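chain below, 367 aa
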Amino acid sequence: MSDLRRRKLADLLVNYSTEVKPDDWVGILGDFKSLPILREVYQAVVDAGGHPSLLIEDSQMQRYFLRNASDEQMNWVDPALQRYTEGGDVYIRVGAPDNTRAMSSIDAQRIRQQRSAQSVILQTRLERAARGEFRWVGALYPTDASAQEANMSLEEYQDFVYGACFCDADDPAAEWRKLSAMQQQKVDYLAGKNQVTLRGPHIDLSLSIAGRSFINSDGRRNMPSGEIFTGPVEDSVNGWVRFSYPAIVGGRAVSGIELRFLDGKVTDASAEMHEDLLIAQLDTDAGARYLGEFAIGTNFGINQFTGMILYDEKIGGTVHMAVGMGYPETGSLNKSAVHWDMICDMRQDSQILVDGELFYKDGAFVI
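prediction:
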């Protein structure tokens, strides 16, 4: 039986997030578990006059590839995917993991090798998006595996996911426009500012935003969203941070991460679990030890850690940072095959100063 909230989510992705128009070439990407919502998205794209291309992924096939592919196969870039990335108009990705630990036994170096080989796809997508040539959005469809990761029943997790996307409201798009207006006020305030200082029990960090732009992430690229983000000046980050939640890559949770920065570069890194994967990621390339993103989460409908970064990085009262690739539209110059988000809780005894003025305290804006 179709869930009305699922239909609302598909409508949001097509008609609000990416605003599909007649003759748009629309890539619809997802896992086989996401087929119920991919069908809804497909129908909405057709109804909007777009040309849909369906691309399906599967963790079992991906796991086999990572274990058995030769170096030549690992370094191969799919020309069909490359052609679409270079010429498509819209990218809609709906993940639906059937096993959140599917890649746990895969060697970190193999994951690193594949990410490096495929970085041309990510770079092209980001550059075209920054130029306004490529509209994209990513979402997740609730599965038993994701619910288990979040310590919820499937029914509870469905309520959480659809609530985080405002799909339990009569007019979800109207709710996103309200959040967008609030965030735009903060973005306007930050325009032209120079220095950001973060202090708290888990952080003592400074970074420059001089000449950089904050982006109002209001559900048009991630669904759900609820964040403002920028790319820090690459050599400006100094201090340390201890991240509050595990950072997951390749199905492995790296917990207890602590990073120390000097003139922008991670000079010291440690983790309580899977430190080898942390170091492997940081050593991927020259840009992987620099921050490509700094962001403040604003979605208070997301109030707990779920193990899914799409939700967790938006938790109201947190900040997150990504080592590696920066978003060109922010002014970031950092390039890397890596873009790895890590979250720090700011809801207790914490503050953010902007050019010496209190901007944010204990998880809430004061400006």
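The chain has a mean pLDDT of 93. The radius of gyration is 20 Å.
thats it, cya
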